[in-house]
């Protein structure tokens, strides 16, 4: 049964044990992680040769707690825009195929620079694909299909992955950070010397999986629902997926009560309520950390209203699952904890600039009578990072031990301010990062940014 870590209790225990929490878990100098008692568990940056250096202040990859976090990779040379070898004037499928080949090749080099193998060691893969669809009108009607030729993506990536492949999410977004890029890929590899273990019969298509186990960890995604008829609204589809997940988890030696992190993609923000109703039935107590992304294009086909992916600990894992709580940060506005700690990893629930009433916090928007004053995107990022820091502290870590972030903006115009503020909080080792534009409002009215954060804990 998960335990709750109270900030005050943790600090008292740490003091009694002689732990100085003001000391960074992995001392850093010159942007590199130095040796620490945690050995190779501590965050270590990976800077591969032979690929383009990012324009933004992030690290291409970070190893921490036996996981390798890869930052979002685009088909760009970061000088002219799309890399020349990834440019095509042909149909959409051809453009996507060329960009996929370029991105996957760079990802493979990045993983190899960390001493791992892209095909064998990838456990979790995200593919963010641009499309003007669905439109706002389509989302409001429950049509979440982005009309993306994903067959070109799957055909190209199959040459890089092994079977059983990683858990995969392919999601439509409105824009990426480089003009005319069609695809961004980020992923997690596991450094344990083994390989993915699949449990489905019949097996999913090559290089795809709905459940895999990797040591202590079990990964579940809803890709299997691409092969069945999808019916009902958001609440009914969430029930269908979670019922199927319960069976798959059991095959892999786990159970839904051991879920530590959930990622949920929906269309219109109004679909949140249906998702929440199903969620409370399946996780009545001690729900996992959760991030819910609205305005997503669900690539599985017409009729899909929700896609879910879960990360679990196996039932026989010796790692503990602890619910993290602090009164120094706002309480979640829906059915999730502030964070969940599992082993040396901390999974935070969705971060937006909300207060404990579930509304936009005071001072986080421009006054209507002063429309040109203030920098709300910067203010919201500073507010969120203060809260992230408090949650990390309550778990026995610190803000500088954030190793991965995925950042969703409602509008690309809010990127520069927010990124500048983010960078100021990480003067040394910078987290692996992925930035995406949803092109529509978030669940909290007035929020410009949604953060999905993972941190290292000693």
Characterise this structure.
It is a single chain. The chain has 458 residues and is of the alpha+beta class. 23% of the residues lie in helices and 25% in strands. It contains nine helices and 22 strands. The strands form four sheets. A seven-stranded mixed sheet has the order 1-17-18-19-22-20-21. Strand 18 (339-342) and strand 19 form a beta hairpin. Helix 2 runs parallel beside helix 5, helix 6 (234-251) packs parallel to helix 7 and helix 8 (376-394) packs parallel to helix 9. The longest helix is centred in the first third of the chain and has 22 residues, at 92-113. Residues 5-39 have low confidence and may be disordered.
């Amino acid at each position: 049964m998960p335990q709750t870590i109270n900030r005050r209790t943790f600090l008292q225990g740490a003091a009694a044990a002689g732990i100085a929490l003001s000391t960074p878990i992995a001392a850093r100098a010159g942007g590199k992680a130095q040796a620490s008692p945690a050995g190779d568990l501590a965050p270590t940056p990976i800077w591969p040769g032979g690929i383009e250096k990012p324009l933004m202040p992030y690290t291409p990859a970070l190893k921490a707690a036996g996981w390798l976090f890869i930052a979002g990779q685009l088909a760009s040379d970061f000088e002219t825009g799309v890399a020349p070898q990834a440019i095509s004037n042909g149909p959409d499928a051809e453009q996507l195929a060329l960009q996929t080949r370029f991105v996957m090749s760079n990802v493979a080099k990045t993983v190899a620079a960390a001493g791992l193998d892209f095909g064998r060691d990838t456990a979790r893969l995200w593919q963010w694909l641009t499309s003007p669809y669905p439109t706002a009108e389509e989302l409001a009607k429950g049509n979440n299909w982005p009309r993306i030729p994903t067959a070109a993506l799957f055909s190209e990536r199959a040459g890089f992955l092994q079977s059983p492949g990683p858990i995969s999410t392919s999601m439509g977004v409105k824009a990426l950070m480089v003009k005319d890029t069609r695809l961004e890929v980020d992923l997690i590899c596991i450094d344990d010397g083994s390989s993915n273990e699949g449990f489905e019969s019949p097996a999913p298509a090559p290089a795809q999986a709905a459940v895999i186990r990797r040591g202590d960890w079990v990964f579940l995604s809803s890709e299997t629902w691409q092969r069945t008829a999808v019916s009902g609204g958001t609440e009914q589809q969430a029930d269908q997926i979670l019922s199927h997940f319960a069976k798959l988890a059991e095959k892999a030696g786990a159970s839904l009560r051991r879920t530590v992190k959930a990622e949920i993609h929906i269309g219109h923000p109004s679909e949140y309520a249906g998702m929440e109703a199903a969620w409370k039935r399946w996780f009545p107590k001690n729900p996992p950390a959760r991030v819910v992304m609205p305005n997503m294009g669900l690539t599985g086909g017409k009729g899909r209203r929700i896609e879910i992916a879960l990360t679990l600990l196996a039932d026989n894992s010796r790692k503990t699952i602890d619910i993290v709580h602090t009164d120094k940060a706002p309480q979640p506005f829906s059915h999730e904890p502030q964070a969940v700690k599992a082993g040396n990893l901390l999974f935070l629930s969705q971060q937006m600039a909300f207060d404990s009433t579930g509304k936009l916090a005071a001072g986080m928007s421009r006054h209507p009578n002063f429309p040109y004053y203030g920098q709300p995107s910067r203010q919201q990022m500073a507010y969120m990072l203060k809260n992230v820091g408090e949650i990390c502290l309550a778990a026995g870590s610190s803000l500088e031990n954030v190793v991965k972030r995925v950042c969703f903006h409602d509008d690309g115009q809010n990127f520069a301010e927010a990124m500048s503020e983010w960078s100021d909080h990480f003067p040394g080792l910078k987290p692996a990062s992925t930035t995406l534009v949803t092109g529509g409002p978030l669940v909290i009215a007035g929020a410009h940014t949604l953060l999905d954060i993972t941190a290292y804990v000693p």
